[in-house]
Design a protein that fits this description.
Elements (H helix, E strand, L loop, with lengths): L1 E3 L8 E9 L3 H9 L7 E4 L8 H4 L5 E2 L7 H4 L14 E2 L4 H4 L14 H4 L3 H7 L27 E8 L5 H4 L1 H6 L3 E5 L2 E7 L6 E7 L5 E11 L5 H8 L23 E10 L15 E3 L10 E9 L1 H6 L5 E8 L1 H6 L12 H14 L1 H7 L7 E8 L8 E8 L5 E6 L4 H21 L2 E4 L4 H4 L38 E3 L14 H18 L2
Parallel strand pairs: 1-7, 2-3, 2-10, 3-7, 4-17, 10-19
Antiparallel strand pairs: 5-6, 6-13, 8-9, 9-10, 11-15, 11-18, 12-13, 13-14, 14-15, 16-17
Helix pairs in contact: 1-16, 6-16
């Protein structure tokens, strides 16, 4: 059943076995995964079925660190959450992402990739993907589609594309028909009420913009509101615990990470036989599984990833790259300027582009190929180093319902910069050894610092990170908040490290795993 929270009588007290806050990828998957049990589930969503300006305003906040896109642009406040503007890119986390790596501070999950193996195939189906297979050898690909680079340095891996699945549309009717599940739209969670010792959540205050408020009580609560709003709600729930719930060690909101999408280098082919078609997002090759005749086909592309042993020997993060077709003018004009984080007008941006073009003329002339030769650019996609200084706090400004807005202090580190530098060096060596292309990197990160404008992926990760040790994370291996018996967190905020892959598939797999856990705990 789906109800508009604005119709709930003021002062009402609603009860369920499980209360889920947020109806995005994690919340809808979790709720759907619980419908085969006898547990009653209440799912809260602060928006309606479509994005609305009034609901979107709840996502607005401050950005006080490395320049970031407006927070209200990065998330949709509606039923289906950000899957309603999701691009559909899917790939699982890699085994190395879960490992404790001596050269990556704070790395290591309390679970392994094997823990999620039973759930990834189910997540594939939930996201309307092909078979759970991400090695190019698993697919019937055209001859010569894969790059021939040194196998001890670089690997080609597969990304599958969801249609993309709009969770709020795809699963709306099923959720509406579920007899044990009730969805409340336009219902914003304001504050969790903790017991006197902070060990249990006793209730949740909910309000709407229509002016009515009500309370929800449940046996267990799950935060599934995203990497900014999950810590925001924990920090704002400070009536009993002044630092916020789950924040005994000042970790709630820390370790915020996103995936950098930086135009890092130009790739100029030398060998005209080199085929990069499979590595273009626009191609989306439809392929069949190579070993199972009845297996689902997939919409896919390839990308390059740095070998795990190279990561270890050169002390860098998990790195991957797309290789995108571009043009001479696009490549040289769009090199990002470096400097502070001050806002710029469109005119200033235009003038800056002209200055960058002028500054790059020498390099442009040197690299200019024959008029009919294609040009490509290397687009970095790498994990961000776990960084406790990169964090979400509460701002002084409050939203229309009186809740403190978030303040994002996004920070990058020397390890992030070093990873790009090493990766470009390794790419140049690999393409040079193959005699297929030259690499040109004008960013000069080592001497000039980060570009002022860094394209990111809108992947909010790690702000309620998972760890067996309460001094190193907010939730345990099962997603339960340390020190609180009946409070759980779902979504990419529980990632211990962000990995270098798109998070949605892993968000869904973790939510399916949490559904099994809750059915076991509450049976």
């Amino acid at each position: 059943m789906i109800v508009d929270g604005r119709s709930v009588s003021a002062g009402s007290k609603l009860a369920a076995d499980i209360c889920i806050i947020g109806a995005g990828a994690a919340g809808i998957t979790l709720a759907h995964g619980l419908t085969d049990s006898k547990l009653s589930v209440l799912l809260l969503e602060s928006g309606g079925f479509e994005p609305e300006a009034s609901s979107q305003d709840f996502a607005r906040g401050e950005s006080v660190g490395q320049r970031y896109i407006p927070l209200e642009s990065a998330r949709l406040r509606c039923f289906g959450g950000s899957t309603m503007h999701w691009g559909g890119w899917c790939r699982p986390l890699e085994p190395v992402d879960f490992e404790q790596r001596a050269w990556v501070p704070y790395s290591g999950w309390p679970i392994t990739r094997a823990t999620l193996e039973p759930y990834y195939p189910l997540a594939q189906e939930f996201c309307q993907l092909g078979e759970f297979a991400y090695d190019p050898a698993d697919w019937d690909l055209p001859n010569g589609a894969l790059l021939s680079l040194p196998a001890d340095r670089w690997h080609s891996r597969i990304i599958q594309f969801s249609p993309p699945t709009r969770f709020g549309i795809r699963y709306r009717d099923q959720i509406a028909r579920a007899t044990t599940l009730t969805v409340y739209l336009h219902s914003t969670a304001l504050r969790l009420t903790a017991s006197g010792n902070g060990r249990r959540i006793l209730g949740l205050k909910v309000a709407t913009l229509a002016g009515n408020s009500f309370e929800v009580t449940a046996k267990s609560y799950v935060l599934a509101a995203g990497g900014i709003d999950n810590p925001r709600l924990l920090l704002a729930s400070n009536d009993v615990l002044p630092a916020g719930i789950g924040n005994d060690h000042d970790l709630v909101g820390r370790f915020f990470a996103d995936h950098i999408q930086l135009d890092t280098a130009g790739l100029f082919p030398v060998d005209r036989r080199m085929n990069l078609d499979l590595y273009q997002p626009s191609s989306r090759e439809i392929a069949r599984h190579s070993r199972h005749a009845g297996a689902r086909s997939a919409n896919l592309m390839a990308y390059l990833t740095l070998d795990r042993q190279v990561q270890q020997s050169r002390h860098v993060l998990n790195y991957s790259a797309n290789v995108l077709a571009t043009s001479w003018s696009d490549y040289f004009i769009t090199q990002k300027s470096t400097g502070g984080v001050a806002e710029q007008s469109y005119w200033q941006e235009f003038v800056g582009s002209l200055r960058r073009l002028w500054g790059n003329l020498d390099a442009a002339v040197e690299q200019t190929p024959a008029s009919d030769a294609p040009i490509f650019k290397i687009v970095t996609t790498q994990e961000q180093a776990p960084n406790p200084a990169s964090r979400v706090r509460l701002a002084s400004e409050r939203d229309a319902l009186g809740m403190p807005r978030p303040a994002l202090d996004w920070r990058l580190s020397e390890l992030d910069r070093q990873t790009i530098e090493v990766a470009v060096d390794e790419l140049a060596k690999a393409f040079g050894a193959a005699g297929s292309a030259r690499i040109h990197a004008p960013l000069e990160l080592q001497t000039r610092g980060w570009p002022q404008h860094i394209p990111i992926s809108w992947h909010h990760c790690c702000t309620t990170r998972m760890s067996d040790d309460p001094k190193n994370g907010v939730v345990d291996a099962n997603g339960r908040v340390h020190g609180v018996d009946n409070l759980y967190v779902a979504g990419s905020s529980v990632f211990s490290t962000s990995g270098n892959g798109n998070p949605t598939l892993s968000i869904v797999a973790l939510a399916l795993r949490l559904a099994d856990r809750l059915k076991e705990v509450l049976r």
